Amino acid sequence: MPWSRTRPRSPEPDAAPVAGTAEEGERLSRIACSSCGAELTYAPGTSSVRCAYCGHEQAIVASPWQVVVEHDLASALARAAAEHLTDERRVLKCETCAASFEAEERAGAQTCPFCGSAIVASPERARVFRPDGVVPFAISRETARERQRAWLSGLWFAPSDLTRKAEAEARLEGLYLPFWTYDCDTVTDYVGARGLRVTRHVPVAREVQGRVVTEMRPVVELRWTPVSGRVGRHFDDVLVPATSALPLSDLGRAGRWNTHAVRPYAPEWLAGFRSAFYDVPLDRGFAEAQAVMRAVIESDIRADIGGDAQRIEAIRTRWSRATFKHVLLPLWVTAYRYRGRTWRFVVNGQTGQVHGERPWSLWKIAAAVLGLAALVAAALVLAGGG
């Protein structure tokens, strides 16, 4: 369980890593094969980059001192405009859905992976927080495509041409999504009340055979006692999406990622894949993480109050030793237009869980309703004739 009532010692604030240059980022975004010179791409489920032409593989080897670090949140917010934790990157923005992602080198016209709109590459340079870690793809493109086909073929009341158009127009693309993770120690003082169910018998008058009789009936009620107390919890890796381009419903239904599988960031993990940039600022992300933490803290308070029912009248939480990481998580995503609307299908690149939006065929639904009505009418006729 990522959140513990115990209070382990958090890491001390980390020294800021040295920022790389934009030229280094561009040079490493394309990794040449040492055998034939073609471009290497990351092979999902492995720790290697692979050449699609000659089959040569090259292991991704992290430096022995390279680790996924937690950054002190207060310090980062105080110097967010500085260059200590940031890199300059080439950012490409979609004019239709406002999504932003890293521009591919030597790329011309492209398709937005979020909304399927055509965009022309005219990247701008921007300073952004560099990723601290990445969860590599474990699901291959072929596996993701098979799951998309199975999902499409299993849809009830879908338009007859949906599968053909979806496969013809949609391009399944591997995309690393930006997330913030937050760690934090909390101590919460509360005031409330504990409710205990008690049963007492009250007299109730009723008429029996023309005369009024009184009988005792049980009544259950809550008896409240004022309480106060303190609860503490250490939160670890509270995950907050750092992009608003993909709806939260899509992300939530695509399942959870295991953040304990985060590897130290290296450009090789992204070889052959695109990377989205965050548009949720660090401070807003922490506010969303605090909302998640508050729900857990409230549950802790109710457990601490005990009894059959609880009232929480006042809460005061102290947040301390807050740290954060900027991580990239894998998602296979496709977007295509059908009858004037954009539809999405996503596959969790770590677990393989799928989620998709789908259109409905009103004609098929109407035919099914009419068919059911005909069967019911025929059954009634047969029952009446018998």
Which keywords apply here?
single chain, 386 residues, alpha+beta, 9-stranded mixed β-sheet, 4-stranded antiparallel β-sheet, 23% helix
A few lines on this structure:
The chain has 386 residues and is α+β, with helices and mostly antiparallel strands. It contains seven helices and 18 strands.
Structure, explained:
The chain has 386 residues and is α+β, with helices and mostly antiparallel strands. It starts with 21 loop residues before the first helix and ends with a helix. It has one domain. The protein is flat. Strands 5, 11, 12, 13, 14, 15, 16, 17 and 18 form a nine-stranded mixed sheet that branches. 23% of the residues lie in helices and 39% in strands. Strand 17 and strand 18 form a beta hairpin. It has seven helices and 18 strands. About 6% of the residues have low confidence.
Topology at a glance:
Blueprint: H1 22-28, E1 31-32, E2 39-42, E3 48-51, E4 57-59, E5 71-72, H2 73-78, E6 86-93, E7 100-102, E8 109-111, E9 118-120, E10 124-129, E11 133-134, H3 141-153, H4 162-169, E12 173-208, E13 211-241, H5 248-253, E14 263-264, E15 274-275, H6 282-305, E16 309-338, E17 341-348, E18 354-356, H7 362-385
Parallel strand pairs: 11-16, 12-15
Antiparallel strand pairs: 1-2, 2-3, 3-4, 5-16, 6-7, 6-10, 8-9, 11-14, 12-13, 12-16, 16-17, 17-18
Helices and strands: which structural class?
Answer: alpha+beta
Q: Count of DSSP E strands?
A: 18
Helical fraction: 10-25%
Tell me the number of structural domains.
Answer: 1
Largest sheet: 9 strands, mixed
| Low-pLDDT sequence parts | 6-28
Q: Could you tell me how far the N terminus lies from the C terminus, measured between alpha carbons in angstroms?
A: 63 Å
Overall mean pLDDT stands at: 78
Rg calculated over all Cα atoms: 29 Å
Q: What is the element string, with H for helices and E for strands?
A: HEEEEEHEEEEEEHHEEHEEHEEEH
Envelope shape: flat
For this entry, what is the oligomeric state of its chains? single chain
Strand content: 35-45%
DSSP helix count? 7
